[in-house]
Design goal:
Elements lengths: L5 E5 H16 L4 E5 L7 H7 L6 E4 L2 H9 L6 E3 L8 H7 L2 E4 L2 H14 L3 E7 L11 H14 L3 E8 L11 H18 L5 E3 L6 H5 L9 E4 L1 H4 L3 H6 L11 E14 L22 E7 L3 H4 L6 E2 L5 E5 L4 E4 L12 E5 L2 H7 L6 E5 L1
Parallel strand pairs: 1-16, 2-3, 2-9, 3-4, 4-5, 5-6, 6-7, 7-8
Antiparallel strand pairs: 1-10, 10-11, 10-15, 11-14, 12-15, 13-14
Helix pairs in contact: 1-2, 4-5, 6-7
The structure holds pyridoxal-5'-phosphate (PLP).
The site of pyridoxal-5'-phosphate has 15 residues, from strand 9 and helix 9.
Length: 362
């Protein structure tokens, strides 16, 4: 018998999404790193990436990659958060390549390679305005590229990359990515050979891949959300992602109380459990249901999406979700299960919550 809350993961739908994105990117000469951090590197899901056409499996957490290796998945693996100095040994041990932006770390990678008798590939990151990781000073980037090429015998400079739409919400445009191509070409001048990889971002670059305006030399993307959920791009940017499944995940929660109650709190308003003053609309007496899961499992109640559009999410505390079921299609009873779709923000928590029981549909 299933335990609740339950997160059902449809592995067939995931495989479909991976293969379709790989195919659409392939038409433009772009290979795809499958990014597994959004679902906490759940090994059963990571396994689906193997042999589905991605050129590597990538995460910002070395723990996910170690877990995948322990599960017998063979990679190649990429570390896509610039490595902590303290994890360089693990990154060299478990990953074929990593994204980098600090000379000190590159030196440490070279040392670790020497110690382990290995080689390690690197992409140098350029910050084109999103203001997260990467070299801001382009001259410095070109110099460090030359340094890696000539001074670090065990480190292979495989290319350059950038990140857009993460912190600064900067849009991936052909102009932005042309800046990256120009940088790559300046590096190529400096080292006297062609770079293998020009990595033009993540899911937010997909729209210009689909409309064909992505610069030709961009030949690599690191795709998380656009494969796993393919929801946020559609909801926020109006990109047509209907050729993918938006329901790889089904979150089910059990109802533990159903009662008629006022919709406006009764008494003096103060702070809630998370130190906030709530906002409440007085709709009179309504039929309400409590579901047995809470913010600990999804963080943002307003970003959970109930599949029954007649059920309204009113709010949550750490372990309770409060639903307005006045208009619910059928009678709701204690013990019933309610289904939700996830978006990126709720997926990262739901897949990391130890209280949520996973089941896999093959
Ligand atoms: C998370 C991440 C990605 C993938 O982002 P999505 O929006 O999920 O496609 C790509 N590159 C880096 C550096 C990341 O940290």
């Amino acid at each position: 018998m299933n335990r609740y809350p339950n997160l059902e993961i449809d592995l067939k739908k995931l495989r479909h999404n991976i293969e379709k994105v790989v195919e659409r990117c392939g038409e433009r000469g772009i290979t795809v790193a499958g990014v597994i951090k959004g679902f906490n590197g759940i090994a059963e899901m990571t396994k689906i990436y193997e042999g589905s056409g991605v050129s590597s499996i990538a995460s910002s957490r070395i723990e996910h990659i170690i877990r995948a290796r322990k599960a017998g998945i063979s990679g190649p693996f990429a570390m896509i958060r610039v490595p902590m100095l303290s994890e360089v040994d693990l990154v060299v041990e478990h990953c074929e390549f990593s994204l980098n932006s600090e000379k000190t770390v590159l030196d440490a990678i070279n040392e670790a390679c020497l110690k382990q008798g290995k080689r390690h590939g690197v992409l140098l990151m350029a910050d084109l305005g999103d203001l997260r990781e990467g070299y801001w000073d382009k001259e410095e980037l070109i110099q460090v590229a030359r340094y890696v090429e000539n001074q670090l015998p065990y480190v292979d400079l495989r290319g350059v990359g950038t990140n857009l739409g993460c912190y600064g919400s900067i849009k991936a445009t052909p102009e932005k990515l042309n800046e990256l191509v120009e940088l790559a070409e300046a590096i190529e001048m400096g080292i006297g050979r062609r770079l293998e990889i020009i990595s033009g971002g993540g899911t937010t670059t997909l729209p210009i891949v689909f409309d064909g305006t992505v610069p030709e030399r961009i030949n690599h993307l690191r795709i998380g959300e656009g494969i796993i959920l393919a929801y946020d791009m559609m909801a926020q940017f109006g990109v047509d992602m209907t050729f993918l499944y938006q329901d790889v995940f089904t979150l089910r929660a059990e109802i533990i109380e159903v009662k008629e109650k006022p919709s406006y709190p009764v008494g003096e308003l103060s702070y809630d459990a998370f130190g906030q003053v709530g906002e409440y609309e007085d709709r009179g007496i309504r039929k309400r249901a409590l579901a047995a899961l809470g913010k600990v499992d999804f963080a943002y109640p307003d970003m959970l999406m109930c599949r029954d559009k007649n059920i309204e999410i009113m709010g949550a505390s750490s372990d309770h979700l409060i639903l307005d079921v006045e208009k619910c299609s059928g009678e709701i009873r204690v013990g019933d299960k309610v289904e939700f779709d996830l978006c990126y923000a709720t997926m990262v928590f739901a897949t990391s919550s130890e209280n949520i029981h996973l089941t896999f549909k093959e």
